[in-house]
Amino acid sequence: MYLQSPAPEEGNRIVSKLALLGALLLSLPLAAPARDLTLAEAEAKAEELKLDPYSRLAPQVIMGLALKDWAAAGGRIGNVTVTPDMLGQLGAWFAGGGVTGSAGGKK
């Protein structure tokens, strides 16, 4: 199965419309606190709409997308120590089985 990120075009279109709404709100002769609050609400809604497609993805898919983007950007790590128990837990997490704690119960 291939990882496919959500189509950003729809989110970008909505965010663009909200940015236009924000610019319009700034031009209105509202009291400054009311204008600032309305603008903050529009910005919050734009951020929510931008992140909404990711809320339907499994955490493993989001982690995979993040690692892919990080690697594409030339991310580097100096030193990493991975113990056998950490590797086992990481493998179980990516397989969708969850992570077990030191007592053996799922976290």
Secondary-structure topology with pairs:
Layout: H1 8-27, H2 32-55, H3 59-72, H4 84-94
For this entry, give a set of tags.
single chain; 107 residues; mainly alpha; disordered C terminus
Structural write-up:
This protein has 107 residues and is mostly helical. The protein is built from four helices and no strands. The chain has helices at residues 8-27, 32-55, 59-72, 84-94. Helix 1 (8-27) packs antiparallel against helix 2 (32-55).
Give the count of helical stretches: 4
Secondary-structure-based class equals: mainly alpha
Mean pLDDT score: 75
Instruction: Please tally the β strands and state the result.
Output: 0
Low-confidence stretches: 102-107
- Order of helical and strand elements: HHHH
Identify the overall geometry: elongated
